[in-house]
Design goal:
The chain is α+β, with helices and mostly antiparallel strands and 696 residues long. The protein has 3 domains: 63-169; 184-323, Butyryl-CoA Dehydrogenase, subunit A, domain 2 (Beta Barrel); 341-681, Butyryl-CoA Dehydrogenase, subunit A, domain 3. The protein has 24 helices and 11 strands. The strands form 3 sheets. Strands 1, 2, 3, 5, 6 and 9 form a 6-stranded mixed beta sheet that branches. It catalyses: a 2,3-saturated acyl-CoA + O2 = a (2E)-enoyl-CoA + H2O2.
Length: 696
């Protein structure tokens, strides 16, 4: 490489070198990739068509056909809800709103949804989970605080009755939760414990004399914290506490039966006054979601009837005898938490919707905004800059990939609720953990990139990125911290790995490991490692094999490392020593699942032109992910240097090709203006709407 002068530029005599001539040409012209990746050793750069013009031979995207294929079964329900709220401007959330007013508006929105629009979310969740999640996405498009408040009322408070209670609880509470007569909350998290639910300290001690449980907060660390709907509106709480049975332990000591769930009234149904023995304080203003009233609860010898124990997995008789169909505390705990995966499914589902909104605003603005251009020629759209394409096009491809992954997740969840099959339940638990973690983390990063890509106008509150970023940020934490959830995925992969080598069967989502582990244990093929043709790189078999090979390699290597470190560090120490490796493994597996669902969706598309467009987007998603982790593939010679370079060039080319249909791809999301809300992201007259908002 030529030595740079102290000023940072090459000296004059270096101007004649091929490298400097190339740099000068790049500095004088705006160039796009050619129709195909340039052959190795090519000396010339081929100019491309200018901004906004369709390249000859490029794909034509039919928005109507794309929209039709993307639409779920319950799009009509969503459109009805959009119309309902559009026609009621008093229920619209303004850009600037004090916390107290936002909370009251959010409550009015939820009441209107149930009592005026006629939606019965708890019935939907029980009978048709797919429609319930569609409703959640629709209300979240209007105000994410509303979606979370609805989720607390129905997924958490109502879901605990459905999933952890028995017939007597459903008969008493179901209808009144559904129609909002019984607003409630879900009191699991404590000041000192969030992710480690088994270490919760709140107690529920059985009193055999009065046939009651006594709920107590033994210390400040056990105060229930961040409890949505509790600060102002909730009248009941599902409280997670340690079930204590007096005199039933060793030597007549109290017996701790582990974490159970209890229905605890917290406010008077008529006066709304806080009940005796209960102290509720407001958690105050948050970074986002200020339409949700999060509170902190302390219990001082609060007595509840024995029937208020949600007793699906464990019960206490009148004489104080404990019974359960599950033999150990750990199994009961796993069963209890396993029934609460609906919240994770809902967050993954909603996060995809939020990503679509952010990408739509950023892409539309990038097509609208014109800056710079070749000398003495019109300015060009910022989306014609390669750097901008690299920011937004893989993100747009990911939004499509996640769309089909969430459809698969909801289908599996619905199947689980219908069949109660243990294997499917285990599969959904890990799948929901992985997709919730991966998608919400990706969306959080992407919102900031979209804001940045819109420059100064992206910083205006009216253009929605601030609300999206602040409201969505906590998705990475509640319903399971993302790092903790990825560890659950890694743990399950290791369990499947052990079963594979013991001759056991693998669950449906993991059965690819059988073949890819065999491939991994053999040496990479030196011939295919060098193949660089476009047809080969865009072959879904190559792409999926590469994803799965990486997962198998990570799984095999981390299993060996864990076995080695366990000898000196023990199980916990070995896990901690390999933790980053385990997290990478979990993410790799989830990416494999996402790609497999995307490839299947492309194959299943009935319209040929739409299938071609989706194939282009899928190729970009797959190859961009391979390129981002190219070091892994290079280190084990799965990809030779020439092939790595070809992948890089092809990602450039595919990003440009996707840019040519970017408008159609975001329009196919079919998001109404009431969901986009950002003037710079509207389909027409964006600048006019923006200036109007300011007052011109």
């Amino acid at each position: 490489m030529a030595t740079m002068s102290r000023s940072g530029y090459g000296s004059e005599n270096e101007d004649s070198t091929p490298a400097m001539r190339r740099l000068r040409r790049l500095s004088l012209h705006l160039l796009q990739p050619s129709d195909r990746p340039a052959p190795e050793g090519a000396n010339s750069l081929v100019p491309a068509a200018c901004a906004g013009k369709r390249r000859a031979g490029g794909l034509d995207a039919d928005v109507a056909a794309l929209t039709s294929y993307l639409r779920g079964r319950h799009r009509a329900t969503q459109e009805r809800l959009y119309r309902f709220f559009v026609e009621r401007p008093e229920l619209h959330t303004p850009v600037e709103l004090p916390m107290a007013a936002h909370r009251e508006l959010c409550l009015r929105q939820m009441v209107a949804l149930v009592r005026e629009a006629g939606v019965r979310p708890l019935s939907l969740m029980a009978d048709d989970p797919a429609e319930y999640f569609a409703v959640m996405e629709a209300v979240g498009g209007l105000d994410i605080s509303l979606a979370i408040k609805v989720g607390v009322q129905y997924s958490l408070w109502g879901g605990s009755i459905i999933n952890l209670g028995t017939k007597k609880h459903r008969e008493k509470y179901f209808d009144k939760i559904d129609n909002l007569d019984y607003p409630g909350c879900f009191a699991m998290t404590e000041l000192h414990h969030g992710s480690n639910v088994q270490a919760l300290q709140t107690t529920a001690t059985f009193d055999p004399v009065t046939d009651e449980f006594i709920i107590d907060t033994p210390n400040n660390g056990a105060i229930k914290w961040w409890i949505g709907n509790s600060a102002l509106h909730g009248k009941f709480a599902t409280v997670f506490a340690r079930l204590i049975l007096p005199l039933q332990g060793k030597g007549g000591e109290p017996a701790d039966m582990g974490i159970h769930a209890f229905i605890v009234p917290i406010r008077d149904l008529e006066t709304h006054a806080v009940l005796p023995g209960i102290e509720i304080n407001d958690c105050g203003h948050k970074i986002g979601l200020n339409g949700v009233d999060n509170g902190a609860l302390r219990f001082r010898s609060v007595r509840i009837p024995r029937d208020n124990l949600l007793n699906r997995f464990g019960d206490v008789a009148r004489d104080g005898k404990y019974t359960s169909s599950l033999p150990t505390i750990n199994k009961r705990f796993a069963a209890t938490l396993g029934e609460l995966v609906g919240g994770r499914v809902s967050l993954a589902y909603s996060s995809v919707g939020i990503l679509k909104v952010a990408v739509t605003i950023a892409v539309r603005y990038a097509l609208l905004r014109q800056q710079f251009g070749p000398p003495k020629q019109p300015e060009i759209s910022v989306l014609d800059y390669q750097s901008h394409q690299h920011k937004l096009m893989p993100m747009l491809a990911s939004a499509y990939a996640f769309h089909f992954a969430r459809r698969y997740l909801v289908d599996k969840y619905s199947e689980m609720k219908k069949t109660n099959d243990e294997d499917i339940s285990a599969d959904v638990h890990v799948l929901s953990s992985g997709l919730k973690s991966y998608i919400t983390s990706y969306t959080a990063k992407s919102i900031s990139i979209c804001r940045e890509s819109c420059g100064g106008h992206g910083y205006a509150a009216v253009n929605h990125f601030g609300d999206l970023r602040n409201d969505h940020d906590i998705f990475q934490t509640f319903e399971g911290d993302n790092t903790v959830l990825l560890q659950q995925v890694a743990g399950d992969l290791l369990k499947q790995y052990q079963q594979k080598f013991k001759g056991g069967t693998l669950s449906v989502t993991w059965n690819y490991l059988r073949d890819s582990m065999s491939t991994y244990l053999s040496q990479p093929n030196p011939v295919t490692a060098r193949w660089e043709g476009e047809d080969h790189l865009r072959d879904p078999k190559f792409q999926l094999d590469a994803f799965r090979y990486r997962t198998s390699r990570l799984l095999h290597s981390v299993a060996a490392r864990l076995q080695k470190h366990m000898k000196t560090l023990g199980g916990f120490g070995a896990w901690n020593r390999c933790l980053n490796h385990l997290l990478t493994l979990a993410e790799s597996h989830i990416e494999s699942v996402i790609l497999a669902r995307f490839i299947e969706a492309v194959k299943s598309c009935p319209d040929e032109k739409t299938r071609e467009v989706l194939k282009l987007v899928c190729d970009l998603y797959a190859l961009d992910r391979i390129w981002k982790d190219i070091g892994t593939y290079r280190n084990v010679d799965y990809v030779a240097p020439n092939k790595a370079k070809a992948i890089h060039k092809l990602v450039d080319y595919l990003s440009y090709q996707v840019r040519l249909v970017a408008r159609e791809l975001v329009d196919a999301f079919d998001l109404p203006d009431e969901v986009i809300r950002a003037p710079i992201g509207l389909q027409s007259e964006a600048y006019a709407q923006y200036t109007q908002h300011i007052g011109f």
